[in-house]
Amino acid sequence: MSKKKNLIFSLFFLFVSTANISSFAVEHKKVSENQKNTVSKAVEKWLNGRYQVDSVKKTPMLGVLEVRIGNQLIYVDAKANYVLIEGRMIDLKTGEDLTASRLEKIFTIDFSVLPLDIAIKTQTGTNVNKGRTIAVFEDPFCSYCKKFRMTLEEIDGLTIYTFLLPIISEKSAEISKKIWCSEDQGKAWTDFMARDTSPNEILNDCTFPENELLDLAKKLGINATPTSYLISGKRIPGAVSKELLEKEFGQISVLD
User: Residue 209: its pLDDT value, please?
Assistant: First the structure.
């Protein structure tokens, strides 16, 4: 067993011993302000002040606390003497990955707060269904984005809001501006992603909202493309399959 795995296993064993998990908390009670401050200071000191603790919560495992740092979760003991990183908390009775469930809640957003005025709107097919609405953050030179775009085109009735996120290279910003400032943004984007055809003419007096898009991505914790949000607010990372998307859309009630 590697030293890294040994360390993680040892820390987990220590947590189990300390927490006495023969009994579990019935509900997530709030951490006291004093304990929250103690844990936050200890963790932030360990991180040399580079990151700030966003929240401290109790977990179903007694004596173990969840610490959220941005979009990441770590676990500490009640006195913040020990930390467990790169670990998953699993409910052995149900098999549920509690860490994954918490991260899904953290990543979920209110879709209505997305500034759709700085997105490119396109639709697939004719049977448009509001429940089949998706927002996608994409870089024009992202190969996985191109693959994902082809997948989206195979699904009928989609409304797609594309947020151009030029993070791969300087050329990303250049072509993003050309696409944004095209007379037909949707066609320009589809042509580039599907056929590598760059728009020749752009509108005069057009400003590409690059800073707004980068700020939005930072606020949402997006650092890779493609990253998508369903209208339910659920976050979908990566170029997932058509089958997975169809399953996700099938779980969303039709909205008026």
Answer: 97
Which 8-state DSSP code applies to residue 135? E
What is the reported pTM?
0.76
Token output for 245: 């998307």
Which tokens go with 11?
Answer: 């820390």
- Asked whether the beta carbons of 100 and 107 are under 8 A apart, the reply is no
* Residue for token pair 């401290």: 56
Amino acid at residue number 251:
Q
Could you tell me which residues are beta bridge partners of residue 65? 58, 76
**pLDDT digits 0-9 by tens, 119-146:** 999 999 888 788 899 999 999 999 999 9
* CATH superfamily entry for domain 111-250: Glutaredoxin (3.40.30.10)
Give me the residue spans of the domains in the chain: 3-107, 111-250
Half-sphere exposure in the Cβ direction for 197 (13 Å, CA): 13
- Tell me how far apart the alpha carbons of residues 145 and 193 are, in angstroms, rounded to a whole number: 8
Spatial distance between the Cα atoms of 91 and 77, rounded to a whole number of angstroms: 18
